[in-house]
Each structure stands twice: as structure tokens, then as C-alpha cells.
Amino acid sequence: EAQVTQNPRYLITVTGKKLTVTCSQNMNHEYMSWYRQDPGLGLRQIYYSMNVEVTDKGDVPEGYKVSRKEKRNFPLILESPSPNQTSLYFCASRMLAKNIQYFGAGTRLSVL
Amino acid sequence: RKEVEQDPGPFNVPEGATVAFNCTYSNSASQSFFWYRQDCRKEPKLLMSVYSSGNEDGRFTAQLNRASQYISLLIRDSKLSDSATYLCVVTPRDTGTASKLTFGTGTRLQVTL
Question: Which of A83, B15, B38, B113 yields a CA-CA distance of 20 to 30 A from A27?
Fold first, then answer.
């Protein structure tokens, strides 16, 4: 089954404790991205990657890091989480030649 | 002005009603348009693409008005299962490039008995 898998689905952590949210897709998509979704603000892109070892900032990259060492994986790293990073996070992927995007099920993060 | 604007709603409609949402976009160079559906606390999923001539998929009809820079979604014979948030998505260029998808904040629809 074609899918985007992100883990964990729920995470409660404390300020400053480094965390990683994993994302994996099995559709051989070149393009992957991370979004956060907050009430009233909609989906905002954090980082994106057009291929292995190619990453770039989205609209709200501060406080986040990503890496793309393999085509299928695109982890999101919060080196020192803060309460304003409490949000619902989605990983997404698509083919470069098509604009139809597939989303993971989401990770609900709370930073205390 | 936001790149993509939607009325947040909620639109509360009885089952069987016809309901329409509009979405306006600010970038006149926008080329590709989509409607996504998002159920509460779930991931967005593609509902339908929007073509220049308008297109229909069952009870759903999407229209594009380039002159006024808006797209619309019409839902006929609303079902309880249509209750969700509908996201308007716009991209600046057509396929072939890694163009950015810009999402509206969504319009919430609640269909009631």
C-alpha cells in the first residue's frame, strides 16, 4: 500500500529535550516536506527536499532541522524544543512532476 | 493580504442541502488548483483537482474563475459524511517543477440531520 508513515503519532516532551520525528514514504517520490498546522494559521511549510541531500527552508524553518540521506526518509529534528513548537505536524511527499501531495497521519507534539 | 483566503465557517447545513465554498488567491501567476478534504485531527487528502473548464466528480463540482482569481467547490445533496474541513490549494506553476503548494486555512462544513 502506498503511504507516508510518520512516527510517533503523539509526543509530549519538555523544553530543551532534543527529539526527532521520522517520516518515510514508499512511493519513490522525489519531493518531501514537513508542515505544521495551527488553529487559524492553516498548514505552513517548515522544510522541503527535492531529492537526496537537497533540502531547503519553507515558511517557518526556525527551530527545526531536517536531513535527506535516503530518498524514502525525511526526519524532522527539534534540537531544543520550545512551547511555541507545540503543534500538529504533517510529513508529505509527491512526485516532482505532479502537484498531488500525500500526507502522513500526523504527529501531535506538546512541548511543556 | 493572504496568498490564499477562505471563509473559515463553519457552514452548518442540513442533510440533502447544496453548499458552496469559495477560495480567493492573490498570485495571478497561479496555475494549478486543488481541493483537499481534512477530517478532524486527520491528514489532508486530495478531493479533486480544479480544471480551467470546471469539473465534476459525483456530487462535487469545482470551478475556476481566473479573471476574479477564485475557485469554488459545490457540494450537492450533502451527506453527514461530508462533514469536514475543505482546504483550497494553489500552486504558482504547472507540473514539471517543484512548485510550492500554498494551502488556505480551510472552510469547515458541518452537515446535520
Answer: B38
